[in-house]
């Protein structure tokens, strides 16, 4: 069960010791609670049945009843995947799909409400909040899971737990940056639509909203290229998932006092020249090896760039020799 759901339930007072009837206790689950639960990926009819059944029962009974969110199910279904590259891509695809749906909903909100800025802002604010909740849920499950896969540790504890948490926090900042850019885009659309309405009123003409419909900007590159939120988040998610796996692999090697690791071998038709050069090579984590090049050298030359799916493996990884 997602710990965020339990926190939401506790916030409502549903688990308080107050002398409430089952109906009164269930009624504490407000529309805000259900909206936030839906954003976490839960099936609301199923969740309502379970929470009604657990009303007034011990918390232990509640814990036995609550389901996993769809995000948790999807991520954990990949936990037995042996191919790291496939696992990284499929784990990233989970959050990318949610953002693709969110982008579609935001486009629809913009297209339908250019004459009503307050409603446009309200609808898109709700969608943005839900996307961030989904991002936090995905990161809270996928980053530790991929770190564990890379480290091949039995439990995530001690320094490893701190490393995974630091990575989840760092990556969440990228999602928040996307949300901020999305918010700026929506405000720009609202301002431009207002200017066009004023001009149309003064000219006695119908408002022309050409260019304001059908696009959502989630990221602007340094060279001015504009990306939709779904495309950008897909890149962010693949990079975050790969980085988490790599961090686990590197930290495992350091913990076992091993300095050498292997860069995965895959080469595809669209593999860049830098990745082709480094794929399958053994590198030194510390950079002190006289026989093998430093991992930092490979990275400085462009290996592990955004969207790159090459990953770090122990030199004794099955099939590595």
SSE map:
Layout: H1 3-12, H2 22-27, H3 31-39, H4 44-54, H5 59-65, H6 70-76, H7 84-112, H8 117-151, H9 159-203, E1 219-220, E2 226-227, H10 229-255, E3 260-263, H11 273-278, E4 282-284, H12 295-300, E5 312-314
Antiparallel strand pairs: 1-2, 3-4, 3-5
Helix pairs in contact: 3-8, 6-8, 7-8, 7-10, 8-9, 8-10, 9-10
Q: What overall geometry do the principal axes of the alpha carbons give?
A: flat
Rg estimate, integer Å: 24 Å
Q: How many beta strands in the DSSP annotation?
A: 5
Helix and strand content put the structural class at mainly alpha
Portion of residues in helices?
Answer: 55-70%
How many angstroms separate the termini?
40 Å
Please give the largest β-sheet.
Answer: 3 strands, antiparallel
Keywords for this structure?
two-stranded antiparallel ribbon; 3-stranded antiparallel sheet; 321 residues; single chain; mainly alpha; 5 strands
Would you kindly provide a written description of the structure presented here, covering whatever features stand out?
The strands form two sheets. The protein has a three-stranded antiparallel β-sheet with strand order 4-3-5. It is 62% helix and 4% strand. The chain has twelve helices and five strands. The chain is flat and about 75 Å long. The model has no long low-confidence stretch (mean pLDDT 86). With 321 residues, the protein is mainly alpha-helical. A hairpin with a 5-residue loop joins strand 1 (219-220) and strand 2 (226-227). It has helices spanning 3-12, 22-27, 31-39, 44-54, 59-65, 70-76, 84-112, 117-151, 159-203, 229-255, 273-278, 295-300; strands spanning 219-220, 226-227, 260-263, 282-284, 312-314.
């Amino acid at each position: 069960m997602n710990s965020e759901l339990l926190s939401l339930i506790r916030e409502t007072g549903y688990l308080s010791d107050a002398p409430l009837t089952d109906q009164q206790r269930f009624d504490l689950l407000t529309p805000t609670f259900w909206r936030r639960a839906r954003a976490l990926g839960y099936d609301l009819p199923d969740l309502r049945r379970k929470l009604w059944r657990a009303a007034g029962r011990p918390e232990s009974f509640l814990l036995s009843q609550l389901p996993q969110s769809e995000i948790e199910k999807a991520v954990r279904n990949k936990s037995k995947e042996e191919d790291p590259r496939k696992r990284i891509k499929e784990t990233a695809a989970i959050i990318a799909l949610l953002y693709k749906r969110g982008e579609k909903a935001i486009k629809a909100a913009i297209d339908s409400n250019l004459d009503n800025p307050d409603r446009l802002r309200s609808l898109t604010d709700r969608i943005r909040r839900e996307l961030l909740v989904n991002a936090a849920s995905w990161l809270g499950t996928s980053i530790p899971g991929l770190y564990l896969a890379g480290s091949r540790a039995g439990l995530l504890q001690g320094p490893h737990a701190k490393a995974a948490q630091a990575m989840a926090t760092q990556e969440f900042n990228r999602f928040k940056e996307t949300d901020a850019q999305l918010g700026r885009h929506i405000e720009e659309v609202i301002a431009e639509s207002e200017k066009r309405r004023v001009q149309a009123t003064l000219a006695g003409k119908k408002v022309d909203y050409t260019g304001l419909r059908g696009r959502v900007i989630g990221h602007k590159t340094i060279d001015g290229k504009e990306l939709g939120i779904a495309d950008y988040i897909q890149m962010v998610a693949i990079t975050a998932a790969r980085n988490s796996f790599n961090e686990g692999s590197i930290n495992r090697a350091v913990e076992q006092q091993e300095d050498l690791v292997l860069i995965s071998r895959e080469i595809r038709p669209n593999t860049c020249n830098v990745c082709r050069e480094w794929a399958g090579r053994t590198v030194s984590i510390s950079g002190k090896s006289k026989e093998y090049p430093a991992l930092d050298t490979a990275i400085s030359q462009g290996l592990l760039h955004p969207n790159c799916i090459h990953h770090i493996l122990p030199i004794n990884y099955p099939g590595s020799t």
